[in-house]
Each structure stands twice: as structure tokens, then as C-alpha cells.
Amino acid sequence: MGRRAKKAPVQTKKRPTLAKRFKCPFCANDETVECKMDFKVGIGSLACRLCGASYQMPIHHLHEPVDVFSEWLDDCEAAQQGKPTG
Predict the structure, then answer these.
(1) Residue 13 pLDDT more than 90?
(2) Which DSSP letter does residue 45 get?
(3) CB–CB of 30/19 below 8 Å?
(4) Are residues 49 and 31 in contact, defined by beta-carbon separation less than 8 angstroms?
(5) Which residues, 6 or more positions from 25, have their beta carbon under 8 angstroms from its beta carbon?
(6) Could you point out which of 2, 16, 40, 72 has its C-alpha 20 to 30 Å from the C-alpha of 58?
């Protein structure tokens, strides 16, 4: 009689981590924009530590800091082109 075969250990995949610090679109310094997510109030805010540029938007439980940053970039591009933000 042989031994019972052992199961191979389960390999878990590491999820890629998303950035929480970003490059400022105004002063162009790396990792100076920090994101704060307040899910209780429902506001995500970004602020540059060097030039003081800031942005806020309403968020929900599925938002990540990169979502707030990309929305800020979209609003900056829309302002440059003269389109109203909606």
C-alpha cells in the first residue's frame, strides 16, 4: 500500500499595486501629487506638495487613486481646449 499523494501548494498571483503618488501636471515633478480617499464623505482629493495645485471629485467604493488622477488630467485637458467640464 502506498501513501496518499499530497496536493501541490496553491500558487497565488500577486496583484500589481497601483500608484498612490503621481507626477504633477503643472510643475512636472515626479511623485509630488498625493491622493487622499475619504470614502465616508465620498470625496477623493489630490494635492501637489510643491506647487500647491489641488483637485477634488466625488467618489464611491470602487474608485482608486489612479481614477481620481486620470479624471484630473482629463479636466486639465478639457480646460486647455476650452470645453466645459460636465
Answers:
(1) no
(2) E
(3) no
(4) no
(5) 53, 72, 73, 76
(6) 16
